[in-house]
Specification:
Blueprint lengths: L1 E8 L5 E11 L5 E12 L7 E2 H5 L3 H4 L3 H16 L1 H15 L3 H4 L3
Antiparallel strand pairs: 1-2, 2-3, 3-4
Helix pairs in contact: 3-4
């Protein structure tokens, strides 16, 4: 499931959206997998968002990487763009969006 986890505006008036993927994986035993899916941004006066992944997927060096190296490369670029603090904030926000409301489930 892709979650629009965090929206914010930078000091330069850039609008940023961080998307987080939440996947339930059933191969090799059940486990949950979280990841930063992508980052979208737009700079004034543009009304269109650009996805960060579109900026590095065209790099020739990206295509020769193994799947694990591609994931590490993408995460490196995401950290450089948004910073670790914002990425962590997005992961926590995504968790808060999907976590169950225990009070309503238990009728409290």
């Amino acid at each position: 499931m892709r979650i629009e986890a965090l929206k914010y505006q930078t000091d330069k008036k850039e609008d940023i959206i961080i998307f987080v993927d939440y996947n339930e994986v059933y191969s090799e035993g059940y486990h949950v997998q979280w990841s930063i899916a992508d980052i979208a941004y737009r700079r004034p006066p543009s009304r269109n968002y650009i996805f960060l992944s579109d900026t590095y997927r065209d790099d020739s060096e990206y295509y020769i990487l193994s799947p694990e190296e591609k994931t590490a490369y993408a995460l490196k670029r995401q950290k450089e763009f948004a910073g670790e603090v914002k990425l962590k904030e997005a992961l926590v926000s995504a968790w808060n969006i999907i976590r169950p409301d225990t009070d309503s489930i238990l009728g409290m």
